[in-house]
Amino acid sequence: MKPYYLAGSDNDKASILKTLAETDFITVHRRENNKNFQTAYPNQLIEGKIPQELINNHLENYFDYYLSVIEMELAIEFSFNFKKDIFGNPKAERIKIPKSPLFVSTVLMENECGEIRPYTTEDNKLWCQQGKRRFVLGRQSRNN
To answer: What is the extent of the structural domain holding 123?
Structure first.
């Protein structure tokens, strides 16, 4: 997840976020998923990966957790209390994410060579599908 502070309508913001999603994965701070998240494939269990079809469900279930992780990395904001012409003690607080943030989730696909692409454009979706076919065919040939 990567936070942004954007102005404009929700449609304008969503459009900007979708554009940024094409390359954000390159600069975002990545974290490994918990090993408890497992994906079962025929004859193989992969730890730390979430199947594409379960991403939205996973985000809904862990959304508050992910927001708390991001908030811990946001800047500290200082506010001052003024009494007449004298500064009061500054108060330091982390910036808070609004209660109902607008967000775009982007599924990333990684092939057997470690190349990563966002599952967004038609070209990238085709690339992902070809990678899945190679993965399945490779599994089938090793099991025969």
So the answer is: 10-75+103-143
52 within 8 A of 38, measured Cβ to Cβ: no
- How many structural domains is the chain composed of? 1
CA–CA separation, 1 and 106 (whole Å): 9
CB within 8 A of 105, min separation 6: which ones?
Answer: 55, 56, 59
Is the pLDDT at 122 greater than 80? The verdict is yes
Q: What is the pTM of this model?
A: 0.64
| Per-residue pLDDT tens digits for 35-71 | 677 777 777 777 777 777 777 888 888 888 888 888 8
Q: What is the 3-state secondary structure (H, E, C) of the chain?
A: CCCCCCCCCHHHHHHHHHHHHHHHHHHCCCCCCCCCCEEEECCEEEECCCCHHHHHHHHHHHHHHHHHHHHCCCCEEEECCEECCEECCCEEEECCCCCCCCCCCCCEEECCCCCEEECCCHHHHHHHHHHHHHHHHHHHHHHC
